[in-house]
Structures are given as structure tokens and as C-alpha cells.
């Protein structure tokens, strides 16, 4: 198996509004793909579909060779759980549990799943907090943290279940500009470690530096995709050029 994510002719409508129009792409192991495009172009819906936070209306999604949905027909509930468990997602607004400490946020899901011993879960949360530079924040509550720190906690939490794939939906869009760097550094480190990732982002310099491939979405379609050199250096389409120039 050498494809981590295979999406074919993905269609999604909300009522009569067609949000994704036959979107097809694949992601290889260790690849970091950045998805860019105007607001409303379907980036979040595409990402959410991969982890079954949205139910698609047509097409196929195959994760590491296992069909989540094939020609619009979903796998059984237990297969869906297994397949989506191989992916971690990080949201724009962190989505931390305010009533749990940082460590509690990291340990909740693995403690609930009971697949690992408590001591191993505690050791892993310590290691991951150190990895994102927050070893000293284990016992504080999210309300005590800056936005950049909260997002680093959210990334550590996503890593607790050993995902094979990480999905980021505008991870720095809710942050003050001076706090984006600390979050982007963590994501860059994961890319350097060959984590397979899809990153929806408005940070064009970051996308250019870190991504192996850029997907430009517009009006529910992949308008253009290619290497950062191609997309930023010599975009094929006028609408890509216009989008890149407006920033
Ligand atoms: P992006 O992330 O690129 O900004 P989205 O995927 O959030 O785009 O949204 C794409 C389109 O789908 C937008 O027109 C949005 O209003 C619409 N949309 C998203 N979620 C819903 C929903 N739950 N119900 C109805 N329309 C939705
Ligand atoms: Mg979005």
C-alpha cells in the first residue's frame, strides 16, 4: 500500500448547494500537502469529509487502502471507526476541553479507549508536551494559555493516538500574528519527521516552504495543483494568480 489518502470524484452538497464538485487527489506516505483557496471554496468540508465529520453525497475516500466510502456507499460503523482513528485533526479554534487540564486534554481519549496502560499514556503525554515546548504547562487549564500554546496543546493531543495522518484546518487563523510562528514551527517539525499531512492554510510563505505539493481550491473544485515552485512561481490559471496576488 503506497497511498495514504485516495479521494475520487468526491461530491458534497448541503441541500441544493453543491460544495464539492468531483474532487480527486491522493496523498503519498510522508507527503505534506497544503490546501489553499478563497473562503467558501470547500476546504474545510473536504477535510471534514476525510474524518467522517461530514457525510459525502458521492465519490470515494480510501485511507491506507481501506475504503471509508466507495461510490457514495459508506463502510460499516466499526470499519469507519477504525479507518478514521488513523487520522488526527487540528481545528482553527483548538477545541480543547476547558474543564480539563492540559494533561487531562491529552490523556482523555487514550484513557477512554483503554488500549494502553495508564503509565504509558502518562509518559506519552509528558513526551508530547515536551515536544511542543509545553512541558511546564501539564497541570494548568486551557484558559491560562495563549492561543499559540492552546494550539500546540491541540497538536500534542492529536498525536496521542499515534495517527498516521494529520489534518490541519487553518491552525493559525485564530492567532495573533506574533503567535503563529510557534505553531508553524511545530507543524514544520512534524513535516521534517515525514508525518503525512494535509494543511489548509492562509500562510502562503509557510505553504511554500513546508509543503511538498500545493492544492488550490476554488468554488468546490481543485482548480490547480502542483509543487510550490509551480503554483507560486508560474501558476497556470488566471484565478490562481489573482488569488495569490490579493494577499
Ligand atoms: P472553506 O473552508 O474553503 O472556507 P467550507 O468548506 O467551510 O469552505 O464551506 C464551503 C461552502 O459550504 C460554503 O458555501 C459554506 O457556506 C457551505 N457550508 C459549509 N458547511 C455547511 C453546512 N453545515 N450547511 C450548509 N452549508 C454549509
Ligand atoms: Mg474553512
TrEMBL record:
Q: What is its main location?
A: membrane
User: Which stretches are transmembrane?
Assistant: none
Membrane topology type: Peripheral membrane protein
Which keywords does this Swiss-Prot/TrEMBL entry list?
Answer: Amino-acid transport, ATP-binding, Cell membrane, Membrane, Nucleotide-binding, Transport
Tell me where in or outside the cell this protein is found: Cell membrane
Alphabetically, the GO molecular function entries are: ABC-type amino acid transporter activity; ATP binding; ATP hydrolysis activity
Please give one Pfam family short name.
ABC_tran
Q: Where is the ABC transporter domain?
A: 5-244
Look up the record and report any one GO term of the cellular component aspect.
Answer: plasma membrane
**Of which family is this protein a member?**
Belongs to the ABC transporter superfamily.
Query: This chain belongs to which protein, by name?
Result: Polar amino acid ABC transporter ATP-binding protein
Q: Which organism is it from?
A: Paenibacillus albidus
State the organism's lineage.
Answer: Bacteria, Bacillati, Bacillota, Bacilli, Bacillales
